[in-house]
Amino acid sequence: MENKVGLFYGTDTGNTEVIAHHLAELWKISELELIEACDMTAADYDRFDIIIIGLSTWYDGDLQSDFENFFEEFKTIDFSGKVVAMFGLGDQTGYPEYFVDGLGILGEIILENGGYIIGMWPNEGYEYDESKGLYDEDHFYGLALDFENQYDLNEPRLEAWIKQVEQEIEEMVEEA
Questions:
Q1: Could you give the CA distance from residue 134 to residue 120 in angstroms, rounded to a whole number?
Q2: Distance between CA atoms of 99 and 60, rounded to whole angstroms?
Q3: Confidence of residue 153 (pLDDT cuts 50, 70, 90)
Q4: Which residue, 52, 92, 116, 162, shows the most beta carbons closer than 10 Å to its own?
Q5: Backbone angles phi, psi at 85, to 5 degrees
Q6: Where does the pLDDT of residue 1 fall: very low under 50, low under 70, confident under 90, or very high at 90 and above?
Q7: What integer pLDDT is reported at residue 3 of this predicted model?
Q8: What PROSITE patterns does the entry give (predicted)?
Q9: Is 65 left (phi over 0), alpha (psi -120 to 50) or beta?
Q10: In the CATH scheme, what is the code of domain 4-175?
């Protein structure tokens, strides 16, 4: 395995790409390789022990188009021994019953296929009706961002989440 993190992101409007590149700029603890979802293969996931996934949720809880097209292959990936963190974009006002569903759709598969998810994010401060993106009653599977309704909170949330994820990785390394 390579000693770096793979950041897989899918973008239709460019917002997820903006977050992915900004995350890469802020990332401190290791080298990070960006892989756009339209170019990813299942073999790309094999190259990394630590993976970050970024995607948006569309319409009535649909995955971002590249992840939607890759979904059947995604379900075959063996995440055993892999640590995964995720961030998701959604619209909690326009689609309050599907806010960041993509996090949960992929998160369930990652867990079913042996992965370990870090970077769970509190759902406090969001206003939505339902979400498959919830890991439990109080946390999303990863960072939830809303470009439409809480744009001003994206930067501070992203910075805090990166620190959280890096700390969780460092703690895992110390325990190993």
A1: 9
A2: 9
A3: very high
A4: 52
A5: -120, 145
A6: very low
A7: 61
A8: FLAVODOXIN (PS00201), FLAVODOXIN_LIKE (PS50902)
A9: alpha
A10: 3.40.50.360
> b/e map of 71-90 (b: 16 or more CB within 10 Å)?
eeebeebebeebbbbbbbbb
End-to-end CA distance of the chain: 16
Residues 6+ away with beta carbon under 8 Å from 53: 7, 8, 9, 84, 85, 86, 87, 106, 142
Q: Which residue has the tokens 């996934």?
A: 53
The pair of three-digit structure tokens given for residue 87, joined into one six-digit string:
């961030």
Amino acid at 1: M
Largest CA distance in the chain: 44
Determine the angle formed by the axes of helices 101-112 and 65-74, rounding to 10 degrees.
20
Residue with the two structure tokens 């990936």: 77
Domain spans in the chain, listed from the N-terminal domain onward: 4-175
CA distance 2 to 73: 22
Phi, psi of 144, rounded to the nearest 5 degrees: -105, 130
> Which pair of structure tokens corresponds to residue 73?
């292959």
What residues contact 112, with CB distance under 8 A and at least 6 apart?
none
Q: What is the identity of the amino acid at 56? A: S
